[in-house]
Amino acid sequence: MLVWVLYDIEKDRSRTKAAKVCKQAGLYRVQFSCFLGTLTSNEKDTLRLKLEDLIDVDRDKVYIFPMSKDELRQTDLLGQAFDKNLVSDEVRALFF
User: Fold this and answer.
1) How many of the other CB atoms lie within 10 Å of CB of 35?
2) What angle, 0 to 180 degrees and rounded to 10, lies between the N-to-C axes of helices 41-54 and 12-24?
3) Which pLDDT score, from 0 to 100, does residue 94 have?
4) Which of 2, 26, 30, 40 is the most exposed place for a label (fewest CB within 10 A)?
5) How high does pLDDT run on average in the chain?
6) Residue 48 and residue 9: Cα distance in Å, rounded?
7) What is the pLDDT of residues 50-81, one digit of tens each?
8) Which strands form 61-67's sheet, in the order they lie side by side?
9) What H or E segment, with its residue span, contains residue 61?
10) Which DSSP symbol is given to 63?
11) End-to-end CA distance of the chain, in Å?
């Protein structure tokens, strides 16, 4: 399944670790705190547990949204949409 991970984490160290965990899970950075990629259900659960361990549940926010490829193709992108320097060709191919 396609998965979006978005987060708003206060502490720099935790935020950096969250980005590292997302990259290690095979997700591609779409924006600084936004990742997209394909995960199995088990990989998504593992990622959720790792991110949960990193955050302060009283202050930080993490969103993990599963999405189908058809739904992604229906997504509206406005303006620059994402930093093309941060996004792989594989992710760009999913949008177009």
Assistant:
1) 26
2) 170
3) 64
4) 40
5) 88
6) 14
7) 999 999 999 999 999 999 888 888 888 777 66
8) 28-31, 34-38, 2-8, 61-67
9) strand 61-67
10) E
11) 18
